[in-house]
Amino acid sequence: MLELEPHLREVLSAFRESRYKDALATLERHQARYLLDVHLSHQVGNLMNLIRSRAIVQYLEPFETARIARMAEAFGFSEQRMERDVVALIGAGDLKARIDGRDKVRPLEWARLTGQVIKAHAPSQRNALFKSAYEVGEFIDRSTRAMQLRTKLIAYEVIVKPPKGHKSGGDGGQQQSLQLNGNDN
Questions:
Q1: Is 95 in a helix, a strand, or coil?
Q2: How far apart are CA 119 and CA 110, in angstroms?
Q3: CA 122/CA 111 separation, integer angstroms
Q4: Model's pTM, two decimal places?
Q5: Alpha carbon of 5 to those of 26, 46, 62, 148: distances in Å?
Q6: Are 41 and 34 contacting, i.e. CB atoms less than 8 angstroms apart?
Q7: Residue 173 CA, distance from chain mean position
Q8: What CATH number was assigned to the domain covering residues 7-122?
Q9: Do 152 and 129 form a contact (C-beta atoms < 8 A)?
């Protein structure tokens, strides 16, 4: 299919590189061609809207806050059209965000529309990643401290390892402790 429609490679490449203005412009340039297709002509408008909607959602994914003016610039739209599209996506439930009055957009869980700032309430992927990394670090720290303690206990002969090849008799493989008072009874 890409061989028959070489401009689709440009569109896919632009989407992959987050050049939404170029991708949407290329699709708009070839829209008349799609309207002539017998099977595709009835769906061209819906497909263009879905592609534009997906591009807006994809644009907002990495951000906690975004400005409508910057979004309009990135997509080549007017600020009014950008705001209208974002409001439509929020209303449809495709974009969990809200618009505030300071010309920002936040793409998490959005609650209310009050102007031109979109804000999200869901935890960002970045925060979740930092939390996960912190928990892994804490686990490694605890494990390392436990290994150091065990090594020191063995070094000071508080815990004695059984000889190699020796099977302990019913103690479940647990280490044997020496008496610390010096009596060898």
A1: coil
A2: 6
A3: 11
A4: 0.55
A5: 12, 20, 31, 64
A6: yes
A7: 45
A8: 1.10.10
A9: no
Handedness of CA 71, 79, 43, 50 (dihedral sign): positive
- Contact between 108 and 120 under an 8 Å Cβ cutoff? The reply is yes
Q: Which SS3 state, helix, strand or coil, does residue 118 take?
A: strand
The residue with tokens 């402790």 is 177
Average pLDDT in the 179-185 region?
47
Q: Alpha-carbon distance 18 to 58, whole Å?
A: 9
Alpha-carbon span 24 to 20, nearest angstrom: 6
The pLDDT tens digits of the residues spanning 47-64 come to 899 999 999 988 888 877
Distance (Å, whole) CA 111 – CA 89:
13
CB 107 within 8 A of CB 95: yes
DSSP letter, residue 183: -
| The pLDDT of residue 167 | 66
Residues 35/67, Cβ–Cβ less than 8 Å: no
Q: Which residues contact 2 (CB under 8 A, 6 or more apart)?
A: 8, 9
SS (H, E, C) 146-179: HHHHHHHHHHCCCEECCCCCCCCCCCCCCCEECC
Q: What is the gyration radius of the CA atoms in the chain, in angstroms?
A: 31
**Under DSSP, is residue 57 helix (H, G, I), strand (E, B) or coil?**
helix
Question: Can you list the alpha helix ranges (DSSP code H) found in 61-92?
Answer: 68-75, 79-92
